[in-house]
Amino acid sequence: MTRHWLFLILSLISMISYAEESDISSRIKQAYQLVWDHKMSEASLLISGITESDIVNLSDSTRYMYYYVAPSAYSYNENKSILLNYLNKAIKIRESSIGVQDSEYLELLWGKGSILEDTDPADAMKAYHRGIVIGEGMVNKGNYAINHWFGRILDSLGELYYKRGYINQAISLYREGFTLLK
């Protein structure tokens, strides 16, 4: 009889845990869609209160969505180390299981480079160069988002080259970037 109660209690705990994970997963997916609808404050509200420990057992795609959306809860100047941490985790998931052949990956690399420009320009350049390597095979094929993020990467890299005194390279990157951003 005691075993039956123990089994029943463990089953209930398992169901509650599954329901909580399901709710968290649903909130993350809704927030992800809101980001795409340019409703950042609503997305931020949906994921507020969700912590990294809440998402440990979720799928890679759901964890990726969390790390992609989580920076919307912070202003760009608020805490760059937190933003960089989320971006790095999103990048890692894309590279290990989801894939890199889309505009979101370019956006993540641009975001990482933008955060690092002032504190670590060499790593910012690495992020931008990675974006160029990945983006070259995707750009100018009619996908506005890919062209947009590739153009921003070129423009940002051009700015770093300009600051280092490589004017001709900067101008070339600016031209190519601006052409894509039209």
Note down, in words, how this protein is organized.
The protein is an all-alpha fold and 182 residues long. The chain has helices spanning 2-36, 40-47, 52-55, 60-69, 80-98, 103-116, 121-135, 144-163, 167-181. Helix 1 runs antiparallel to helix 2 and helix 8 runs antiparallel to helix 9 (167-181). The chain is elongated and about 80 Å long. Residues 10-19 have low confidence and may be disordered.
Helix count? 9
Low-confidence stretches: 10-19
Strand element count? 0
Average pLDDT number = 86
Shape: elongated
Helix fraction by DSSP (H/I, runs of at least 4): over 70%
SSE layout:
Layout: H1 2-36, H2 40-47, H3 52-55, H4 60-69, H5 80-98, H6 103-116, H7 121-135, H8 144-163, H9 167-181
Helix pairs in contact: 1-2, 1-4, 4-5, 5-6, 6-7, 6-8, 7-8, 8-9
Quick overview of this protein structure:
The chain is mainly alpha-helical and 182 residues long. It has helices at 2-36, 40-47, 52-55, 60-69, 80-98, 103-116, 121-135, 144-163, 167-181. Helix content is 77%, strand content 0%.
